[in-house]
Amino acid sequence: MGRQPRHRGCDHRGIGHLPDHAALCEVSRRLAVSLTGAGAPNIEKIMANIPVTVLTGFLGSGKTTLLNRALRDPQLKGTVVIVNEFGEIGLDHELIEASSDSVVLLQNGCLCCSVRGDLVETLIDLHQKRLKGEIPEFDHVVIETSGLAEPTPVTEVLVAAPGVKSCFSLAGIVTTVDAVNGLATLDAHEQSVKQIALADRIVMTKSDLLTRPDELRERLARLNPACEVLDAREVDAGALMRFVASNRQEPAWRVVAAQQGERQVHGGSSQGEAHGHDARIKRFTIVRDEPWDLETLKLLLEALATNAGPALLRVKGLIHMQDSPERPAVIHGAQQLVHSLSWLDRWPSEDRRTRIVFITMDQGAEEIGELVEDIERLSQRTRAVRERAANHTGAVTGGANR
Ligand SMILES: Nc1nc2c(ncn2[C@@H]2O[C@H](COP(=O)(O)OP(=O)(O)OP(=O)(O)O)[C@@H](O)[C@H]2O)c(=O)[nH]1
């Protein structure tokens, strides 16, 4: 079969050279005109290929932090964020600093497996709503994957899924890697190796906490020799999110996508191999309606610091505090790091419950649930003792003053 000539407006690389693809595009363009009765500007909108940046990196490696920095750049005002979380409930959509109508949460599973169909639907839905003017105009999408996602199935959706590949194009993959946990993560979690190997840009975070991450840098260079490793402190986050990978040699994901295209042409699966996550990985959430006092939070942070290590893959939480009802406290931890407490300026949504998400290796919900209950009981008892002591002191001083 002869190679088909390229035509303007479609990039055939990596998806196989289907003989009638150019003709199909022309038919679809005409169909769009007849369906919408639209003039030239709308046709441009219909035929536009919206660039998509995939932001990946292991659990807690700093994806949301980098994205928030990028979203402050006015150049990203037309960006829609699709965020996927592996946690039992999602918190990232609350922590991403963008208006709620430009953030879509895909939860209850991982983009690379159980919610991959949701990603296809979400992208198609966004495109249709954009055409109908039902959502604000956007010209760029960032997909923040869950920390446990393998990037390949996500890139396959973008380059091969019908209804997606004609409207969106993969601009590039940005991978964050945590300087402190990075080496241990690469040793223990295969997804992390794939996230690095497929990256167009690697951003090393938390090097402010580790002065010489030389060994990690060497490892990254071996896994992805063509990719520059940037320091999160120095990077222009906005420009990074908008870059297009074609400005360097053949990106690794394009090679993988090309193989995927070959498989399609030869009658193979269009969705890649299904895979599951390590069965030892558990996820669960602690939810509380009643606000906590400082004592409880302090005890929790101490317990997390004591238990920090490879089994604590991720903890993150929004905490409703008695002393600060309008400003929730935010806790973060990943493996051996428990980060300092921070505070949001306001509640990001109507939901003001305390929610703490755990992702662990082998540690069950019951164990951690009991630990949190013990902490709550201990803090209640401490409070009661303090109140009794204060009343007693008050009574003694009152008596002495009489
Ligand atoms: N010191 C330091 N902390 C960082 C840096 N980047 C991120 N963090 C902290 O790391 C914690 C986790 O950061 P996130 O941005 O939520 O990580 P994530 O990759 O989005 O996490 P998941 O989506 O849960 O996988 C937060 O407490 C951040 O403040 C950094 O460069 N230096």
Describe this structure in words.
The protein has 402 residues and is of the alpha/beta class. The chain folds into 2 domains: 45-265, 3-Layer(aba) Sandwich (Rossmann fold), CATH 3.40.50; 281-401, Hypothetical Protein Yjia, Chain: A,domain 2. It is built from 13 helices and 13 strands. The protein has helices at residues 21-36, 40-47, 63-71, 92-95, 116-132, 151-160, 182-188, 190-197, 214-223, 237-242, 252-265, 294-307, 365-401, and strands spanning 50-57, 79-84, 103-106, 140-144, 168-178, 201-205, 229-231, 281-288, 312-321, 324-334, 337-338, 342-343, 354-361. The strands form 2 sheets. A 7-stranded parallel sheet has the order 3-2-4-1-5-6-7, with helices on both faces. Strands 8, 9, 10, 11, 12 and 13 form a 6-stranded antiparallel sheet that branches. Helix 9 links the parallel strand 6 (201-205) and strand 7. Mean pLDDT is 81; it is low at 1-22 and 262-275. Bound molecules: guanosine-5'-triphosphate (GTP). Residues 57, 59-65, 92, 147, 205-206, 208-209, 232, 314, 316, 332, 339 line the site of guanosine-5'-triphosphate (GTP).
